[in-house]
Amino acid sequence: MNMSRTRRERLVVIGGDAAGMSAASQARRLKGPDELEIVAFERGHFTSYSACGIPYWVGGDVTDRDRLVARTPEEHRARDIDVRLRTEVTELDLDGRRVRARDLDSGAESWTPYDKLVIATGARPVRPDLPGADAPGVHGVQTLDDGQALLDTLAGTRGRRAVVVGAGYIGVEMAEALLNRGYEVTVVNRGSEPMSTLDPDMGRLVHEAMTGLGITMVNDAEVTKILTGDDGRVRAVATQDREFPADVVVLGIGVRPETALARAAGLPLGTHGGLLTDRSMRVRGREDVWAGGDCVEVLDLVSGQERHIALGTHANKHGQVIGTNVGGGYATFPGVVGTAVSKVCDLEIARTGLREKDARRVGLRFVAVTIESTSRAGYYPNASPMTVKMLAELRTGRLLGVQIVGREGAGKRVDIAAVALTAGMTAEQMTTLDLGYAPPFSPVWDPVLVAARKAAAKVRSSTTP
Amino acid sequence: MNMSRTRRERLVVIGGDAAGMSAASQARRLKGPDELEIVAFERGHFTSYSACGIPYWVGGDVTDRDRLVARTPEEHRARDIDVRLRTEVTELDLDGRRVRARDLDSGAESWTPYDKLVIATGARPVRPDLPGADAPGVHGVQTLDDGQALLDTLAGTRGRRAVVVGAGYIGVEMAEALLNRGYEVTVVNRGSEPMSTLDPDMGRLVHEAMTGLGITMVNDAEVTKILTGDDGRVRAVATQDREFPADVVVLGIGVRPETALARAAGLPLGTHGGLLTDRSMRVRGREDVWAGGDCVEVLDLVSGQERHIALGTHANKHGQVIGTNVGGGYATFPGVVGTAVSKVCDLEIARTGLREKDARRVGLRFVAVTIESTSRAGYYPNASPMTVKMLAELRTGRLLGVQIVGREGAGKRVDIAAVALTAGMTAEQMTTLDLGYAPPFSPVWDPVLVAARKAAAKVRSSTTP
């Protein structure tokens, strides 16, 4: 059989959420079905949904699960993307350019050849290897299926005591969600303060605010066992020295790249277990394999090293870049600066760039300053307090990171620092940034400018040789 | 008499508001009273107050005038700054290094020598040269004294019809203030749409929203006369073809640099009538004279030309820079990108960089795109619509300007573009900015990223040779 020049190519996508389906959709925009066949395998029931929205669905802010779905399988199929749900890819044959997939309902397996492959297998939640971790009433919140299972448990449970294990983004967002559902919430946290993506002094502010909301915060606590009752359901979470009664337990310990398939196929993985790609999101050393979303490592533009960040906004950008390249265009993903924003009730938490320990780890010396200011002019109604911490490199004065804890108007201010980090600005340069000012929006010196002034002064006055 | 090397120098500051008193305070921080004497002349009753806060005081959001005063004359005097209120400088003798000042209460005049001079004479509101413009009931809102006079009028007036002349920042903010006070508000505007600091298509959105708030918007209207009643008080505002009954009239037409003194002394003025300074805020060609705040022109970093912007945040930065340099340190003000943010009730309006006509005027060709998005993830409660317009240069793709009209969460997003403009980023570079994302804060593609994607695509697809 001759390979005709007009032979239709086949793109196979593994993973039907943000990165995978963004890639498929963008490739479809650039190449019609007569040029490119697109097959997408998804082991769950849903495509293109907002995993980041699950806490708000569980908490009741979002009442309809379907609202979290940006594009259904049917909508993808209407665009000639062959979505195969409940179908898990079990093996990659890179030399043979084919993937083996299993229909999870029938158990049937078959091979599907590809010309181009996109790996978007996402991340899997860390599940502690503990007795009882799989008991009824213990839930992760990684997928829509997880969220539905948790909501079913909440609906069927009379007790009102919830224990959240982990105090990162998922942990604090789930604490809010369960508080909104009327639960007594205890957060059990291994670290010295919640939100280990912040420095501990800023995490302390989160701790205090969460306590103020009526959440019981337990720090420096290692979960040793999940205790079950006679009915086999969870009844408590045990740490090294205490027991916390629980009618429901949510695990929010973090996620790891889901790269078992890639590892088995010999694809290059980084130190965090994620796939390594080039700037075009092509897997390093491969011509015809791309990867994006929660299963890859990304370049941290501040530290110059790879890191793993599971976040929908990156996954969407990766998918866009991959789809453009697969579709014959040109696009790149240069990297991240590590921006994240979250909230617990009215507390807003944001960070970008390096924490103190990140900077030390990569050999950067720095000054750190912390300032207090307000979201609006001090005399304007509802001006709320805000704490801004800023790190700048010694000698160069280059911005290294910003952390913000405050109320309304605090969180998205981190974007100022995110752009400044991307541009490689110094704290001194930031002091004269022309930021939006009017009394309802900012003090006459925006809190970020106040931090920049203090950081720049500290860089200047440093006597480190 | 020998000039001792330890002779105390004298700094004279003309103007006791943001720029002047920031300069005085910063100079004092660096040099004690044994090294530097500081004399500040202010013709009004107040120092260091927020003129930007006046609309919110008039509107009742701020109940106490004193809250608008950041630092009183007494507080400045406690820091050894000799503040002389109700004292107007009437002449500069630059060769003799002295200023003549008149005590406005006694009428006494005297000369004060200086070693260093700071000119911070601010701006004066444009008052139309019209019959009736000085009638009782017609008010500007430039100074605290103006604000108090307006409040006195409101308290003494039974009628509830207010006409605001001008639909720029002051105009729309005063419309909100008078609405909050229970007035029927008519805004008479010379331009085709309100907010001429936006392009007309974006101004149109402001127009519609203000109409929706119950404000009567009259565009393309030139005020020809202010009509007074038998009592001599204002009774109506007349345009070329109509009359608008008015119990109170607020003039918010704009301001011009107050540089009569500087002009008489032969100091260099720009095309907008403002003083021209170098990067250290020293008046060009002068060794010992600095100027800052609303009386100077500033370099627009996007257009490369000088412009005049009366805004407290710039005045404070100028003062900080001047005070540092006068005090023997080193600081510069590199320029502005033209960021401004404002609100009318819950409508937020923001802009930075160049409008279409600004770009054309300086010879820049560009693409312009407009997108609609939301402040939060679409499924999250209170996600509010937002319109973002972006201009990017043809060929280079360099960001030229952004305008945003929306509700809560819209205004301060302009800071993303302000930093990107300062850094000289292209729209394409902006598409991968790592901005804060979580459903309560942003859609997975921040509205600014959506605009950047569309602008970048339009730059790429342009066929202009």
TrEMBL record, chains A, B:
<keyword id="KW-0676">Redox-active center</keyword>
<dbReference type="Pfam" id="PF07992">
    <property type="entry name" value="Pyr_redox_2"/>
</dbReference>
<dbReference type="Pfam" id="PF02852">
    <property type="entry name" value="Pyr_redox_dim"/>
</dbReference>
<protein>
    <submittedName>
        <fullName>FAD-dependent oxidoreductase</fullName>
    </submittedName>
</protein>
<dbReference type="InterPro" id="IPR016156">
    <property type="entry name" value="FAD/NAD-linked_Rdtase_dimer_sf"/>
</dbReference>
<dbReference type="InterPro" id="IPR004099">
    <property type="entry name" value="Pyr_nucl-diS_OxRdtase_dimer"/>
</dbReference>
<dbReference type="InterPro" id="IPR023753">
    <property type="entry name" value="FAD/NAD-binding_dom"/>
</dbReference>
<feature type="domain" description="Pyridine nucleotide-disulphide oxidoreductase dimerisation">
    <location>
        <begin position="342"/>
        <end position="444"/>
    </location>
</feature>
<keyword id="KW-0560">Oxidoreductase</keyword>
<feature type="domain" description="FAD/NAD(P)-binding">
    <location>
        <begin position="10"/>
        <end position="316"/>
    </location>
</feature>
<keyword id="KW-0274">FAD</keyword>
<comment type="similarity">
    <text>Belongs to the class-III pyridine nucleotide-disulfide oxidoreductase family.</text>
</comment>
<keyword id="KW-0285">Flavoprotein</keyword>
<dbReference type="InterPro" id="IPR050260">
    <property type="entry name" value="FAD-bd_OxRdtase"/>
</dbReference>
<dbReference type="InterPro" id="IPR036188">
    <property type="entry name" value="FAD/NAD-bd_sf"/>
</dbReference>
